[in-house]
Amino acid sequence: MNFKSILTTILVVALALGLGVGAGYLVRNTGLLGGGGKGVEIVQGDYSAVYAKAGGDIVLYSLSTCPFCHKAKELLDKRNVRYVERVIDKDEAARKEADGLKINSVPVIYIGDQSMRGYDEAKLAELLDKHGKKA
Fold this sequence. Notes:
The chain is an alpha+beta fold. Helix content is 48%, strand content 16%. The chain is built from five helices and five strands. A five-stranded mixed β-sheet has the order 1-5-4-2-3, sandwiched between helices. The longest helix is centred in the N-terminal third of the chain and has 27 residues, at 3-29. Pfam families: Glutaredoxin. GO terms for molecular function: electron transfer activity.
């Protein structure tokens, strides 16, 4: 191998590593796919229209392939919390609802007068406790 091919290989590996690190940063810190906690946003509001449309008092908007959505469901199931799941990649009506609610990352969980965008186990547990859904 000559110097040029070695240098090219090093540059390709460095670029791939940089892209991997950058993608990891985006997932962790921007709320993309739930963000693993750092991108979690809790918003106060009147979500009665969401509950009326979904037919339940806790509503989870999710994607079938989202690992953070699965973790949120596991926590809700572990606590025996009844909820309505709206899977936006499997149900056209759910997707239209999500579009109307301006949901651009998942999971989004509506509980009482609060919504949680993204997933953080401790924050979800705190939200459940606050709304009388104790473990």
